[in-house]
Amino acid sequence: MFHQLAQHLSPGGETILQSYTSELTQWAGQMMSKAFGTETVVPSSMTPSMFAVRLPIPLRWQRAAQAACAGLIAGGLINKSMQVISFPVHQDLGNMTHWIRVSSQIYLDHADFHALTEAIVTLRRSCRDGADIVDVVV
What SS3 string covers the chain? Predict the structure, then answer.
């Protein structure tokens, strides 16, 4: 894929590369949020080359269980050499939501985001109180 895109680095090629990563980002954010049954931080029209998606961790779980699950997912992704940034957001009700920030690069394609989604769902199944398993819809 990279070599196909790199040949377009003549005048205007940068626009083609930016368009590719933007379209890939928009698709990936929608696909992952649908698979998780969650949402992205902002609409896909506002995501040029990266997005944040809420992890499939139930909001009703106790804060400690949520944090442990988010840590298990983040650690598992690192062990699989899948680099994302994980971060919590405090809620007024005391529990937290957990998000990951995902970037699109010119060397990535749909298969990479399917693999990331499947890895997250598999790791989520390992979380304590895993009765609320989310099925992957990819």
Answer: CHHHHHCCCCCCHHHHHHHHHHHHHHHHHHHHHHHHCCCECCCHHHCCCEEEEECCCCCCCCHHHHHHHHHHHHHHHHHCCCCCEEEEEECCCCCEEEEEEEECCCCCCHHHHHHHHHHHHHHHHCCCCHHHCCCCCC
pLDDT of res. 94: 64
33 is written with which tokens? Answer: 């949020």
Do the beta carbons of residue 63 and residue 95 sit within 8 Å?
yes
For 117, the token pair is 């989604």
82-95 pLDDT per residue, tens: 777 778 776 665 67
Q: What is the pTM of this model?
A: 0.80
